[in-house]
């Protein structure tokens, strides 16, 4: 009995001093660099570290980033640019790419994945599609040859427009035009145990049909949600429905065992006149609610016990991105490292007026999540104290 009480008190000490630390391993952020006023990579590393984010995705293999992130706790998800795919079909050129772009930096720089291209199946240049899987195969073979395949996965992000149907989720299926090459891709992913990455933006669906799609449903706010009429699964947000539609689409091609992750999702804080919903308020709510879900390690209704890996888009507003105004306004931060809006990420290095009152505090993943953890810890401590008292009272003398 005495030993039990000692163990309980030891456990309480751990709780009291905050030695149980919760890290959201399923959350990453996209670090785009299409701007002429962004901070240097070493400053970006400091920002990410202060936010306690340990995964980031870049859209190239920028040697400055790879060097700056050495000996840090942040894992990089790097990208092979679309235009490089034809040359990397050649196994020798793929080996040269791995030995010059990956091997010199690994393992000092944590590299967890290579994205071969980006949205190839929906890119304007459809001529590159045929090169995708052969290039992925050659790059993976080069990783095997250099002994890096145990540490670095190979995949490719697709946009949600690869789906012919996405509603309800159980009707999910790929477009006929890509079904053949998609089978090749899924076969590769299964054989290498790599995830299928999807760029999923509920914002686009809302922008196109604001009178038909409830805003609360796409923002993860409390709402009635929808029930898939075939599976009877209940969905209270669109992102999970989109992910499950992809899972059903893969299953229709005979692939039921491949993990699905979200390589991009976000909400713009500014847009053109016809970009309905692109506001600071909506962006803040979307990303704050997404962070809460990630903290809880949620899975989708179809895979409730498998936490969903998500890369938030994006770290910074990028002033040189082409397209509508929204494309330049997805960042949580301005290039000067001031917050665009506060989603609850509190950084000791932040100079934003929105977080000026907390510049001396250590970052917590989200302020609301931090409160939830604190409340949960207090309830747990109370329970442990009661158990300890009960054991002492019942102890025979």
UniProtKB/TrEMBL annotation:
<dbReference type="InterPro" id="IPR000490">
    <property type="entry name" value="Glyco_hydro_17"/>
</dbReference>
<feature type="signal peptide">
    <location>
        <begin position="1"/>
        <end position="26"/>
    </location>
</feature>
<dbReference type="GO" id="GO:0005975">
    <property type="term" value="P:carbohydrate metabolic process"/>
</dbReference>
<protein>
    <recommendedName>
        <fullName>glucan endo-1,3-beta-D-glucosidase</fullName>
        <ecNumber>3.2.1.39</ecNumber>
    </recommendedName>
</protein>
<dbReference type="GO" id="GO:0042973">
    <property type="term" value="F:glucan endo-1,3-beta-D-glucosidase activity"/>
</dbReference>
<comment type="similarity">
    <text>Belongs to the glycosyl hydrolase 17 family.</text>
</comment>
<dbReference type="Pfam" id="PF00332">
    <property type="entry name" value="Glyco_hydro_17"/>
</dbReference>
<keyword id="KW-0326">Glycosidase</keyword>
<dbReference type="InterPro" id="IPR017853">
    <property type="entry name" value="GH"/>
</dbReference>
<keyword id="KW-0732">Signal</keyword>
<dbReference type="InterPro" id="IPR044965">
    <property type="entry name" value="Glyco_hydro_17_plant"/>
</dbReference>
<keyword id="KW-0378">Hydrolase</keyword>
